[in-house]
Amino acid sequence: xxxxxxxxxxxxxxxxxxxxxxxxxxxxxxxxxxxxxxxxxxxxxxxxxxxxxxxxxxxxxxxxxxxxxxxxxxxxxxxxxxxxxxxxxxxxxxxxxxxxxxxxxxxxxxxxxxxxxxxxxxxxxxxxxxxxxxxxxxxxxxxxxxxxxxxxxxxxxxxxxxxxxxxxxxxxxxxxxxxxxxxxxxxxxxxxxxxxxxxxxxxxxxxxxxxxxxxxxxxxxxxxxxxxxxxxxxxxxxxxxxxxxxxxxxxxxxxxxxxxxxxxxxxxxxxxxxxxxxxxxxxxxxxxxxxxxxxxxxxxxxxxxxxxxxxxxxxxxxxxxxxxxxxxxxxxxxxxxxxxxxxxxxxxxxxxxxxxxxxxxxxxxxxxxxxxxxxxxxxxxxxxxxxxxxxxxxxxxxxxxxxxxxxxxxxxxxxxxxxxxxxxxxxxxxxxxxxxxxxxxxxxxxxxxxxxxxxxxxxxxxxxxxxxxxxxxxxxxxxxxxxxxxxxxxxxxxxxxxxxxxxxxxxxxxxxxxxxxxxxxxxxxxxxxxxxxxxxxxxxxxxxxxxxxxxxxxxxxxxxxxxxxxxxxxxxxxxxxxxxxxxxxxxxxxxxxxxxxxxxxxxxxxxxxxxxxxxxxxxxxxxxxxxxxxxxxxxxxxxxxxxxxxxxxxxxxxxxxxxxxxxxxxxxxxxxxxxxxxxxxxxxxxxxxxxxxxxxxxxxxxxxxxxxxxxxxxxxxxxxxxx
Length: 723
Hints:
Layout lengths: L2 H14 L7 H17 L13 H13 L4 H9 L2 H4 L4 H8 L1 H16 L7 H10 L5 H16 L6 H21 L3 H15 L1 H17 L1 H17 L3 E8 L2 H11 L10 E8 L6 H15 L8 E2 L12 E6 L5 E8 H9 L1 H8 L7 H14 L6 H13 L2 E5 L5 E5 L4 H8 L1 H5 L1 E6 L2 E3 L11 E5 L16 H32 L6 H10 L5 H10 L4 H9 L10 E7 L6 H5 L2 E5 L5 E3 L11 E6 L2 E6 L3 H9 L4 E9 L4 E10 L4 H12 L3 E10 L2 E10 L2 H12 L4 E6 L1
Parallel strand pairs: 2-5, 13-15
Antiparallel strand pairs: 1-2, 3-4, 4-5, 6-7, 8-9, 8-10, 11-12, 11-16, 14-15, 14-16, 17-19, 17-20, 18-19
Helix pairs in contact: 1-3, 2-4, 3-4, 3-9, 4-7, 6-7, 7-8, 7-9, 8-19, 9-10, 10-11, 10-19, 10-27, 11-12, 12-14, 13-15, 16-17, 22-24
């Protein structure tokens, strides 16, 4: 098929998915935008070799079909790269397509400028991007569509860019899609990110889910047959589908709970989408269907989720219950109306459809946007802190609590009484001394539960304390507490510089960058200003700094293991950039093993070139994911390439049925059969179940895995995991 035929088919496909209310005049404007973009991008190819115009067409199709956006958004999606990649300007767009389209394209162009792969300030860039929310949320929705298509075509990119883009997507864009209510897109972004970050684990889990789905298709039919009969008898029009957990959600649950695939019991869910009867309210009909199901199957009371009475902050409405199936399996059942289902899949855009594109929208989402804008208005706010706080606000599960007068407040799960105080007003938070929850006196660190009624107690003599940062979780509370202490930062910075220079003089060290780099690495601090502030504030003592400077350099096992790492030469052209230059290093001065995740030879690792050294993390390390999304150009793909025998510590945890001699068998296998040294051995028994922790010295991950397999074969041992 020729390029012209590919383009023609893609544009025809776009026309097929436009909203049904698109007028002929609007279709003509979309065609005009397509012809304009096609001419502007003529002769330009993507990395995959396809004509570039296929990308904006694909983004426009996602915006129209998968998000449900209207004509202006489709036109903006078609034009979103024109200003950046061609000689046309925003003024040209304004003259041809009008001010609104020009504003959307301008917002998308600014996002691309600040989110470009060359910038080292990814966090600051994202902060600027969120400022566009103040202008038009559709800019962000189109950007999500753009990112989704880039992820779908990521295979054409070199490996180091795949890792960077996948990390950024998982850290920022998937949570952003979640907050915008785009469940299907959020799920796909997560799965695609996992596919490129952990390809082997992705393939294994995907195959097992597919096998599970085929094995249980008969059980699904048996479970739903009586439900269908009951719904038919009661005159409902409906569809029932089976929904299997996504690959990423299974992987994440396995990581978070440290469990195997076989221990995840809620892999299969049943979704009922009904057409509401005109006379009765949707909410009443959801509960009626719930009643019909529980007449057939026994429910699990603690697993009822009522998002019909109080929708989630991103607009999600549904009624979830878990019931015991006919053969002893638990089934999650999701009950939604057609309107609720469209909102669940298309999020914010569906709200516009039901309330009018210029209407009220989602009140909870409006509150969230207002809170983000308040964060942005904080003077001198740190960009990376903002990014972390923003992500917290994106993904947090919610609770609903009440003021003494009965007004409802939505807060993240785990929020404290102090978070609630700051949510009401900054001054109430600053002067909080405690609270009454359900008329009982509690400390300000008390974690709130849904349904709590909270009264804040204040005192004029109170002021923020640094200890508050240890238990508050909301971005609003954190930003106001940090702002309160910002005025002292300059003073602490100066004191820290004086102290550090004094230490160097006393130790007769030259004031070069080497001592500073050594201390930064030792305390895992990213820049010298943070070190000086912590030193001036007393968080780090002079004695601790002196102790680290006296240490002889080196990460001992790096002398015995070699890492191969690939650096990008930014000054080379795109062709040379893909040809990674290989350097081998076994020097203690070049590589630092990160203490936050302590990777060992054989682990899947990634390097971050920060502060002149390559810090090596496990790929799964949360800190590595955060750094990769914020400092994408600092990623250095690394792998273990050779080794000599040396023992290093690893902690194993095991659990099982207690019986006489089981501990002896475990330690015998470790010390005699496998011939591994033990450093720490600790076992506890309660109600016939033992839990143990053993720190052993092994040579590599294969050695450790063989040991764990051997121990798991002992009678009574249920699980063996590495910490």
